[in-house]
Amino acid sequence: MSLDLSFLLFSVDRNVYFTGNNKVNIIDIPKSSEEYKDVVGKIDTTLNATIRKVVKVDNRLLKDYYNQNKERYRISLNGIFQEMQLFHATADRNVESIVTNNFNKRYTVRSKFGKGVSFSPSAEYANRYCNRNVGYNRALILTKVLVGKSHEGSYDTYEPMFGYDTTTGNDGKVYVKYNDNEFYPEYVVYYNIDAIGLFSL
Predict the structure, then answer these.
(1) Closest CA to 111 of 181, 164, 178
(2) N or C: the chain end with fewer CB closer than 10 Å?
(3) Dihedral of CA 150/151/152/153: which sign?
(4) Is residue 1 part of a domain?
(5) Could you read off the pLDDT of 94-143 as tens digits, one per residue?
């Protein structure tokens, strides 16, 4: 169970955050770099958006939590699990809390496939699945996600069935996670969405 450390959050500049003794570095990725092209290349060409910038998140504490869970998956599932790169779309204003404290399922608004944190392999789908009230200035968070055993979820799924860790929906377009730090927010793509992107699914 993770602690909400948001009350300790302060920033000495826009690229460095602290929670207690944990330092979070936000690294701007140059548009000319292969890393930038690789991240942007994962975004569907059907997404009607203008990309403003891409940053990489270096949060040592969250990495440690994630890697501990990855090792637990490796042992308990005999190495049979996936480490996926999936998107989560949100408002600009939510990014600082997420990259500092990680995602929190208590803030979930849309829960068609389970009341956890939702991710998608499709940036376009993640954007459309996002709460329309977040407005035009948004962020796609490219996240490492651990997926072991999964089953179809529904609106009234509060936890996956015994022996499972993930629920899915819409033919694999949605993955829902319920346990803290089984995901790590690796990159943030800041973008402006066109009006068509505000339509919900």
Answers:
(1) 178
(2) N
(3) negative
(4) no
(5) 999 999 999 999 888 778 999 999 999 999 999 988 877 788 899 999 99
pTM recorded for the entire structure: 0.87
The boundaries of the domain holding residue 39 are 6-198
What does the block give as tokens for 101? 């404290």
Strands (E), 10-164: 10-13, 16-19, 22-28, 49-59, 82-91, 117-119, 137-147, 150-152
Does 162 map to a domain?
A: yes
Report the alpha-carbon distance of residue 144 to residue 113 in Å, rounded.
Answer: 20
Torsion of CA 184, 22, 30, 37, to 10 degrees: -10
Query: Count of domains in the chain?
Result: 1
Tokens describing residue 185: 């927010």
pLDDT per position as a tens digit, 114-124: 999 999 999 99
Domain with 93 in it: what CATH number?
3.90.228.10
Q: Which amino acid is at 186?
A: E
Using CB atoms within 10 Å of the CB of residue 30, give its burial: 0 to 12 exposed, 13 to 18 middle, 19+ buried.
exposed
**What residue has token string 């789908």?**
125
Amino acid letter, residue 156: D
